[in-house]
Amino acid sequence: MCTEIRTKVFIVEDAPAIRDRLIEMLGDLASVAIVGDAGTPGAAIAGILQTLPDYVVLDYQLDGGTAIDVLAAVRPNVPETVFLVLTNHAHSQYRRVCLEAGATHFFDKSLEFGRVKDVIAAADPLHR
Fold first, then answer.
1. From CA 76, how far away is CA 62, in angstroms rounded?
2. How far apart are CA 60 and CA 18, in angstroms?
3. Which residues of the chain have pLDDT under 70?
4. Roughly how many angstroms between the first and final C-alpha of the chain, as a whole number?
5. What is this structure's pTM?
6. How far apart are CA 98 and CA 18, in angstroms?
7. pLDDT reported for residue 1
8. Within the chain, where are the H helices?
9. Which has the closest alpha carbon to 123: 72, 84, 77?
10. Domain ranges of the chain
11. What gap in Å lies between CA 99 and CA 71, rounded to an integer?
12. What is the CATH number of domain 7-121?
């Protein structure tokens, strides 16, 4: 019996319209499974630790905290997970702090939204 390997993605975004757009965009990738989503740091931390995703798409500014709160809490427990911070606050100081905290990528929502899909698709064997 052959089981399909799925790329697990967890989405952390407090704006429902953006979260839905990300789910729709990543749903185009054949081997991607959205394993959860959250809109607050606490829910994100619990969800990431429970699902152990391959990728986390992480909004910088969340209801009740920031991506830094999430990264600080989970990064040591999920060293192989790729974190893609997606933000409207694409200032260089935020980029530096996020990368230092363990983010792998840092994208401006208004200019680089599609790069999230590009990064995940590059690792998707069914998309190549």
1. 21
2. 13
3. 1-5, 124-128
4. 24
5. 0.92
6. 20
7. 43
8. 16-26, 41-51, 67-74, 92-101, 109-112, 115-122
9. 84
10. 7-121
11. 10
12. 3.40.50.2300
